[in-house]
Amino acid sequence: MKPFALPRLRSLKRAGCTLPLVALLALVGAAPGMAADKPLDRQAVEQIVRDYLIANPEVLVEAMHALETKEQAQSEQAQKTALTANRAALENKGPVGGNPKGDVTLVEFFDYNCGYCKRTHPERVEAVKKDGKVRVVYKEFPILAPSSIEAAKAALAANRQGKYEAFHTALMKHEGRLDSDAIRATARDVGLDIKKLEADMGDAAIQAEIDANIALARELGIRGTPGFVIGDTLVPGAIQTEQFTSYFAAARAAKKADKAG
Question: Residue 162's CB: how many other CB atoms inside 10 A?
Fold first, then answer.
């Protein structure tokens, strides 16, 4: 019988996690009654590994935890690399609110039809106001409905009339799904020139900005709304005022550490 050659990447799957057999096969040499000069065939080795795992199932749990830790570290490093590579696009493009000269920048990706975005909005506003030194960059990220795209275009057009934040806030306070009538009614309520607004909404540059935001979100791994980038940290999902405050403090601490280093 041909001696068994150790496979390089044979894996055992359990609970959605992949456990390499290579490490476990090292145990084969210690199996009771095994002669050092007697090679095993594949079936014998697999039976030994199977018996070992059945007798020691905690090995699977340990391996799963180790794999999760490794993948988390790799994900965080990839995320940090992506944030660094896209820093200019994140912080220098898009409407700006909060304190334009703030020492911490918060970038928000959102959709006007997103219920979680609307719930988080007052929390974020309160945290930024309370802090006083946070710069906010708005990234229109319309992914939920056609009316989301229309609202995003209207918001960027409103920015050309100097009323971005007023319009943005009004849309965030709107209850229910948006439609064309609601978007235009909101525009009138905040004092926008509707004819100019509609003309600007058709500008290719506005569509290009939205497309760039969507591409940037994908690059960063943002798949839903809301999504925040605070300093060097990507924060997915809705959070509360206290959490924003903690992220602001962490961003400042990281900047201080970078300067000291």
Answer: 9
